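### Sample
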Amino acid sequence: MAAEAKHFKYVVLGGGVAAVSVPSSHLVGFSPFHPHRAWELTQRLLAPVSQGYAAREFANQGLNPGELAIISKEPVAPYERPALSKGYLFPQSKSVLIAKCSAACLMILCSRHGFSLTPDACPLVNRSRKTARVIKLTDFGVQGAESNNILYLRDLADADKLVAAMQAKKDGKAVIVGGGYIGLELSAALKINNFDVTMVYPEPWCMPRLFTSGIAHFYEGYYANKGIKIVKGTVAVGFDADANGDVTAVKLKDGRVLETDIVIVGVGGRPLTALFKGQVDEEKGGLKTDAFFETSVPGVYAIGDVATFPLKLYNEQRRVEHVDHARKSAEQAVRAIKAKESGESVAEYDYLPYFYSRSFDVAWQFYGDNVGDDVLFGDNDPASAKPKFGSYWVKDGKVVGVFLEGGSAEENQAIARVARAQPAVTDVEALKQEGLEFAAKV
């Protein structure tokens, strides 16, 4: 069968939060492409963020009709993935519009700028090896982990399965396995949908990669006050199911058994790097890039969570998993590509790490680095009517990171300035007493 040839100057590969870019001259070495479809490119192949930020930046930089194609294994246009664990699951909401609004905007870009959007046109990942996907309990041989209604949340198809299960098991019991981003946000969403929710995680407190014990004290107490049960220090080791194969119980390592109708697992994901194994340099679990997201192979760019890039603020190579970095790294890479073509230059990527979350009536933001000594300030009582508290991280006499719950837009901007400026601190106790006033002075 003759290959169907298509010609593009740029191709955006994938519909995830971020992926990898490769020039046309290197396509031949990648076996995961469909054997009956040839993609001939004249210059570069850029992997995207799901929101279409790479495509949008190409349009902003100037693009001729027919120069750009977007290829994704998902059968839908790229969309705002963070909405999947928030508005998409809320009862009686316009959730589908929330998750797909950016897809609609991208379709408008396609028509205006001549983009070619090809969902599921070619398998970009080696699916037999199951790369570039959420970590599943079946990966570890957990007994009963293949039962029905043991669910994950990585893409729109996963979210649709979860919505269907919530409708089928209305007002039932749900067990959330994991105490990180997904665990906290999904616990809130399930509780809002009137489920009896239990969270299970092995760590001594929730989200230990970012939260200190003082920060976690508030959220665990707040969730408990909302009726969510929390089981810490143990893991799921097996599941029971009924005659139809539907999960009925979660077996914990400490011997407890939790009855349930739905299990949602949020224990992380793996970045897509196996596709390019041995072809570009790797470091710290990602594809090593420069400050413009170009890899060790000229013309090959990696963005988002697959990229290990020079974090200028801390003078070190780092890989960052967050949608904010995915968006900004995509834009940086496209600007660098277009600048190189015109013989110009762009500034090096100077990223300030940023994380945020919203659940129930609380919302927090974090900027910088959570290393050194933490200095908790404010009111972190879970029973407070209007809680507002935060934490500074102090290393080598400087504030390097700031967390704030319940901040206004101006206050959140202030803590971002602190994390960027890294002001000196001589009296930690005075810093604790000043709290947000310290940030306001920077």
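The chain has three domains: 4-129+272-341, 137-265, 361-440. This sample (monodehydroascorbate reductase (NADH)) is used throughout the tutorial notebook.
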